[in-house]
Amino acid sequence: MKGTEAFRELVPMLGDRPVVHANGYICRESFQVLDREANFYMIGSMGLASSIGLGVALGRQDKQVVVFDGDGNVLMAMGTLAMIAAAAPKNFVHVVFDNQVYESTGSQRSLSGEIPLEEVARSVGYRHTERVTKKEELGPAFKRMLAEQGPSFLLVKVEPGFNPKTGRVTHSPEEITARFMRALQ
Amino acid sequence: MLSSERFIERLKEEGFSFFTGVPCSLLSGLISCLENRPDYLPAVREDAAVGLCAGAFMAGRLPVLLMQNSGLGYSLNAFTSLNLIYKIPVLVIMSWRGHLGKDAPEHIIMGDINENLLKTSGMEYAVLGDDNAEEVLARALRVIGQGLPFTLLVKKGQFDERH
Asked: What's the CA gap between B163 and B28, in Å, rounded?
């Protein structure tokens, strides 16, 4: 399945949940599919989507927090998986769109073809982990994640193939913070 | 010397309610006051701690990040491409290893440049001393109120150490 198809499948299921987005095409695709106030678009600081999401989940334990992450980001911050598993927030859902490349910089290969990231998450102690490769499996798997106690980890294998014409997030970083905080109130 | 316990109490009185970081022996007293509290989570790296604090802030907490100045190198991109442009504040308590060139070899260069790194990246900071704690805390709160990070540099012997 293409990345865009995966976003189209998941975004309508989000409700009003806050979603922290990794940089690159994750931000850009999700922004194009549906711009939500509860979306935090991390345009820089690669690797930190998961730690930002953990901070939100610990600060607001009454809200289920979703992170839309990428394989490059997870590989850069594997230690953060340990922080998440140790803190064990029940309200934390980690979705990783794994295309095995750094696509927004020209599709250089990452290590996730060799390293099953959901196994890493399971090993460190995420409560619930799944890998999805087919589009028809994605919605039901995400629904299970939202129903289960976290921390949960959903690895979504996607084909590289984001449209390079996909625009950038047009809100300023300051606006992104203000909107996200408003949505969390 | 300042009392670690009293200092943490002051931070709590000022509304700081989320603590994380990577240890340094100079900060061991502070961390021992925090370690068993539910509002403290040990971080694996300083940049991950920056992210954690950013999320906690947006979720309504006022965060404190403890680190050695070696962590400034790891965190610089997080400060410049997250906190400074998104206006996400954090109080950083940073130990100043290598101050005046008197320390183990690995600390000498960072000890020499950490002030310049903070200045050049537009991060406000103050050096904590015995007599200026209230004054720098007030300044930190003003800067944090503007949505920006503030760093307190802590020299050896400033706090009681427990290691």
From this structure: 7
